[in-house]
Amino acid sequence: xxxQVAPAAAPPALGPFxxxxxxxxxDQLVAEVATPAAGAVVTFAGLVxxxxxxxxxVALEYEAYPELAARELQALSAAVAAKYALQGIGIRHxxxxxxxxxxxxxxxxxxxxxxxxxxxxxEALDLxxxxxxxxxxxWYADGSSWxxxxxx
Length: 152
Hints:
Blueprint: E1 13-20, H1 26-33, E2 40-47, E3 51-52, E4 55-64, H2 66-84, E5 88-94, E6 96-99, E7 103-111, H3 114-131, E8 134-140, E9 143-149
Parallel strand pairs: 1-5
Antiparallel strand pairs: 2-7, 3-4, 4-6, 4-8, 5-7, 8-9
């Protein structure tokens, strides 16, 4: 009779945590956080939409304090990873001027089961919006307006 050996738990893949002017890729972030122990990977991609509060939006512009933003992303991700026993989590946020339809923020969460992955992804986004120093300016057809701290 052969003995069954439980697979060793892989350490969580924490990161990347980045604020960047580069175009974001959901697939790339998924590949960076997925592990063999993960049964689910949940993603969130925040897109630039064409309207806000009844006004036509033509573009968004994001500014950030990159070093502090990366530290905040890492801290919130570590807390979320511990709370939900994640296998991996990564977050990237764009800076600069983005056109309608572009991805402004991407989050990928890997967990053994889907319920934890969905809950962790939602909580990571809420914490990002509340704590990470990223500011959004909306460019409307009739002018622009800073909206303050925002993500996605």
